[in-house]
Specification:
The protein is of the alpha/beta class. 37% of the residues lie in helices and 16% in strands. It has helices spanning 17-30, 38-51, 62-72, 88-94, 114-120, 140-150, 201-210, 232-263, 297-306, 337-345, 357-368; strands at residues 7-8, 55-59, 78-81, 99-102, 125-129, 153-157, 165-166, 169-170, 177-181, 194-198, 215-217, 220-221, 269-271, 278-279, 285-289, 309-310, 346-349. The strands form five sheets. Strands 2-10-9-6-5-3-4 form a seven-stranded mixed sheet, sandwiched between helices. Strands 8-7-14 form a three-stranded antiparallel sheet, with no helix packed on it. Strands 13-15-17 form a three-stranded antiparallel sheet. The two termini are 22 Å apart. Bound molecules: ligand T4K. Ligand T4K is lined by residues 8-12, 61-63, 85-86, 88-89, 131, 157, 159-160, 181, 183-185, 194, 310, 314.
């Protein structure tokens, strides 16, 4: 890679093309393209085993998985969620005719604050939709305690959390359902794709009906389902990706460690704390720019861009600033101070398996000395 090539915030990991061709040959030979074919079945089993969960259902993308999760549990009324996420999190509520109620996040994790969740509960609240932002675990015990006390369901948006372990087990073992995204920009990708992790076989059965138009048999329809199925090309690609994913995460880990080393002493730049209770997937590398830094966050963003480095402001603006949300009472900026400050200060630096450590040194050096 030359210094002139742009460096984007991420780049999908691609396994060797020649290893993918036999999968395609099989699809061409059998003519089975979708509707729960052999690769789909193999990938469901392989991912459940890899992630350490029992029941998993594949989807065409993470957003339709989230929309289906809310249908599966027949969620109604108000759902408490975070303003600090990709907009798909809240959109899944609007697509179900639900009212999002936004509450603030915690400073050290960027995730929903359980104490603030309690304050937002009303008689119409039926569920909590937290996000494991950047793959950092939510306070899953705190959230579950609130859910148990008030009789609420918990659906986790785990789009960023592929393979993350918390206190020795899969993060996806928490909550009533967890969603994963396998979008091109994610740690594990199937071009587009996603999944729901279910607590038991019965729930997976209902999810499987819902993602296939509600069909429970050739002539039986048990629910107004949707088409959320993953196709055979995506599933085959996932099977091949899975062979490489540990190596890809190890590469990310090395990049994360180098950034931390390069940025440790830079005034006005903070990173999320590394955590002893978590096996991370190093999905993102957010930094937070405060007043002690010589440039504003946006000026640093522009400065990096001048050098061909495309950092991203995930997540700015807050979801609550978009037109379809800003009129909601819970969208008032004054009630979301941590999320607002985090959104104004965050910058995600490039991190992906093929990123050279020399490029990481260059990026870290630029952040450390932006006027050089
Ligand atoms: N919940 C959360 C918390 C999420 O973060 C997301 C998705 C979802 C739900 C929904 O899951 P999915 O329905 O997507 O499965 C990207 C992704 O499109 C989106 O999937 C992701 N979150 C979000 C955080 O980031 P953009 O608009 O920033 O993507 P884009 O196209 O600007 O890509 C970023 C960079 O990645 C590009 O500059 C270059 C590189 N790239 C991207 C693509 C698509 C490639 O090198 N190749 C590619 O094919 O939203």
């Amino acid at each position: 890679m030359s210094n002139d090539d742009p460096i984007y915030v991420t780049k999908p990991f691609m396994p060797p093309l020649d290893e993918f061709l036999p999968y395609l040959s099989q699809i061409w030979e059998t003519g089975t393209l979708t509707n729960g074919g052999p690769f789909h079945q193999q990938l469901e089993a392989a991912l459940a085993e890899y992630l350490g969960v029992e029941h998993l259902s594949l989807f065409a993308n993470g957003t339709i998985a989230l929309v289906t999760a809310l249908q599966t549990l027949r969620i109604t009324g108000e759902v408490i969620t975070t303003p600090y996420s990709f907009v798909a999190t809240a959109h899944s509520l609007l697509w179900n005719g639900l009212t999002p109620v936004f509450v603030d996040v915690e400073p050290g994790t960027c995730n929903l604050d359980p104490a603030k969740v309690v304050e937002a509960i009303t008689p119409r609240t039926t569920a909590i939709l937290p996000v494991h932002c950047y793959g950092v675990p939510c306070d899953v015990d705190g959230i579950q305690e609130v859910a148990d006390t008030y009789g609420l369901k918990v659906i986790y948006d785990g789009a960023h959390a592929f393979g993350v372990k918390y206190q020795g087990e899969s993060l996806f073992r928490h909550g009533d359902l967890s969603m994963l995204s396998f979008h091109a920009t994610k740690v594990f990708n199937t071009f587009e794709g996603g999944a729901l992790v279910c607590p038991d076989a019965k729930t997976k059965q209902r999810v499987d009906y819902l993602k296939n138009f509600g069909h429970s048999g050739e002539v039986t329809v048990v629910a107004p389902g949707i088409n959320g199925k993953m196709n055979e090309v995506q599933a085959a690609f996932g099977l091949l990706q899975l062979k490489y994913v540990d190596g890809a995460i190890a590469r990310r880990q090395a990049i994360d460690a180098l950034y931390r080393q390069l940025l440790a002493e830079v005034p006005g730049i903070a990173c999320l704390p590394a955590r002893g209770d978590t096996v991370s997937n190093y999905a993102y590398f957010p930094i937070f720019v405060d007043d002690g830094y010589p440039l504003s966050r946006d000026a640093l963003h522009a400065r990096l861009r001048e050098h061909g480095i495309w950092s991203r402001r995930y997540f700015f603006p807050l979801i609550t600033e978009f037109p379809m949300y800003r009129g909601l009472p819970s969208a008032r900026a004054g009630s979301l101070p941590v999320a607002a400050a985090t959104s104004r200060s965050v910058l995600c630096l490039p991190i992906y398996p093929d990123l050279d450590l020399s490029a990481v040194e260059r990026i870290g050096g630029l952040v450390a000395a932006p006027h050089r």
